[in-house]
Amino acid sequence: MSAGGAFGGNRGARPVPPEKGVFPLDHLHECDLAKKEYIACLKSSGYQSEKCRHLSKKYLECRMERNLMAKQDLSELGFLKDRGTATSEESTSGGCVLIRESINT
Asked: Where does the CHCH domain start and stop, copy by copy (predicted)?
């Protein structure tokens, strides 16, 4: 027999959760409406996510407000900072503005 346990792991080591990528499930369905709106948008747009970015942002904001994920600046999650109103290029490009700016510099 091995001293590491039935599946070969070290029994004394404690698991360490990842910093990002895993967050609590929405057991109380607090953000279901935002999630359903986003999924409906994806289906109606042929799964072109850039057309549904505003709903994706709304869903992430809902999760942050209800402590279902760590609060984080949305610009770090791929959303441009609000500048009053979105430009037509920003609202239709789905975040490509940031990519072009970084390529040109």
From this structure: 31-65
